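Researcher: We're reviewing a set of sequences before deciding which ones to prioritize for further study. For each one, I'd like a predicted 3D structure that I can look through quickly. This is Type VII secretion-associated serine protease mycosin. If possible, include the structure in token form so it fits the rest of the review sheet.
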Amino acid sequence: MKKRWRVPVLLMSAIALSAGPAVLPASAQPPRGACNNPEPGRPAERLLPWAQEVLMPQRAWPFSTGSGVTVAVVDSGVDADHPQLRRSGKVLRGRDFYLVGSLPGNYDCVSHGTGVASIIAADRVPGIGFQGVAPGARILPVRVSDREVGQTGQAQLIDPQILARGIRYAVDQGARVMNLSMAGDQDQAPVRAAVAYAVAKDVVVVAAVGNRQGNAPGVLPSYPAQYPGVLGVGAIDNGGARMSASQYGPYVDLMAPGGSVLTATRQTGHAYSDGTSFAAPFVAGSAALVRAAYPKMTAAQVIQRLKATATPARGGVDSLQYGAGIVDPYRAVTEAMIGTVARELAPMQEAPPDHEALAVAAWWRTTGSEARWMTGLAAGGTGVIVVVSALLIAGHRRRWTAGRSDIVRRRQDPEAELPPERLFARAD
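Model: Here's the predicted structure for Type VII secretion-associated serine protease mycosin, in token form for your review sheet.
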């Protein structure tokens, strides 16, 4: 029995917020018979999404837009008719490996691949806040799946043979970055070999780590994120915390927005979606920016640069939950990197003691102690004089006869407990 792969998506049909009519009318039509009950288009969302507001990829565009870099989206296909993806040359023809024949990959029945591609390279459109990380990049759509959830509610799985063929095709078509928004819990030989082929061909392979964590204790397996040379991506919410479903382990290299992120939908419009599926393309788009800015940099160097320029996350550096941190497209492109080995600092040398200064400090301490002693002695003598004087005056007034305590007098005389204005002076 063939093992299959699961597409890691939490809310593939999340609610889209309407903010007016669609950007442009579109009538994307899949090949006849390719889609069974395709999802409709959605209204356009005009506000700036939180993920784009936090990452601000536009800061990197004066230096790189990803132009000249082909990013393979190995997924459910990509709808080339979406208003933010329809620019000539933006989405290539690609290929459909899910259906038998020679169909293209530039259509989508369910919007998953379209959403992933839009996060990577959606063009800017007037009046729309949403845009891709690398709008100058090309998208190579490789269709290896259809629906994420079947009619019975069970997750649809991807045949590892089909997935492996799609990966190899993308490499042979010149993709320099590959996005794999899918995860499985078993090591599949065909997929492992195909990923190794891509890594050997200097492709930056970016994979989602999966959404099966929840309340599961400990580290769960995650393939292809776990394969050598793959950049595994987990998801954070708009508070910067790891989404509870986002898996964690040594395969987590970077984090990116994945909670309620805005994506393009097939035909037109946008929808909010959750999952590591939509965190991975933020990193894939950033990799496209770096590859365009530094064309001689190897895939391994690109990955290292993305990790080295990441924004620190809650888990600290290289934690199982957050990896190296949150991807930063701007820093990944612009920050200067030193290629030399860091020198070890010489051990700190303590300065020799200043004997003259120590002697002066000791003199002040001694002088201060003597002054405090003399002051205390003088204050004590003054107190004694005051007490003796008071006793002499009191004795003279009583003509040196014994007197009773005021406390005893108050106990014997009830009038002594009255307020002072009620007392009368006793005449002698």
